[in-house]
Amino acid sequence: MLIDLHVHSDNSPCSCMSVAEILAEARSMGLDGVCVTDHDSLAVLAQIEEGFQPDGLLLLVGMEYSTPQGDYLVYGDVRSLPSGMDAYGLFSAIKERDCAVVAAHPFRAWRPSDIACVTCENVAAIEVRNGRNSLRDDRLAEKHAAINGLPRVAGSDAHCIHELGCFPTRFTVPVTSSSDLVRALKNGQCEPGEAFPLAVGL
């Protein structure tokens, strides 16, 4: 399954992409699923129904959680997460919930996950390809994943429709729910998918 794990709707102030646009376009781009990960917000839940859509697209909701130690992608039972935690509080809260944390763009200049926090004890995986990263950023993330034995994922970090689906993650097991996604991430049953043709030249 190909799932874009890092997508922002216009519930994030930095995105111009509506949920309706995401739903209208994602399946035709070849995606099996999309996870909306707005910044510190679950407002999208008032607009959509999680799960399989009429066209077969799996739509899930996570969050890009901001901490003083950078940003982290959180999947699973995000509704019960307290707000305003630092990274270590987030990692502790995750252990009590059906959740997985992924280090978001850890080598990028803007809001990177603090690399000191990106260990197999704290995160399920590391984002080694990101639609807004430089090649250098991605190579450093790949190196860190290899050294620390961390599963690797990709994410488009889409803020507009032409970015959607450019950097999907391939899952080697079926994902039909948030719990499936969490389990697959924790078990390392994932890898960066091939960049879609749309991503060439970004």
Number of helix segments?
A: 4
Level of helix content? 10-25%
Ranges where pLDDT stays below 50 over 5 or more residues in a row are: 198-202
What is the general shape?
globular
Report what the structure shows.
The chain has helices at 19-25, 87-95, 135-148, 178-186, and strands at 2-7, 33-36, 51-52, 58-61, 63-67, 70-76, 99-103, 125-130, 152-155, 169-171, 190-192. With 202 residues, the chain is of the alpha/beta class. The chain has a single domain, classed as Alpha-Beta Barrel (TIM Barrel). The protein is globular. Residues 3-69 form the Polymerase/histidinol phosphatase N-terminal domain.
Summary of the model, kept short:
Helix content is 19%, strand content 24%.
List the helices and strands and how they pair.
Layout lengths: L1 E6 L11 H7 L7 E4 L14 E2 L5 E4 L1 E5 L2 E7 L10 H9 L3 E5 L21 E6 L4 H14 L3 E4 L13 E3 L6 H9 L3 E3 L10
List keywords for this structure.
alpha/beta; five-stranded mixed beta sheet; six-stranded mixed beta sheet; TIM Barrel; 19% helix; PHP_dom; 202 residues; 11 strands
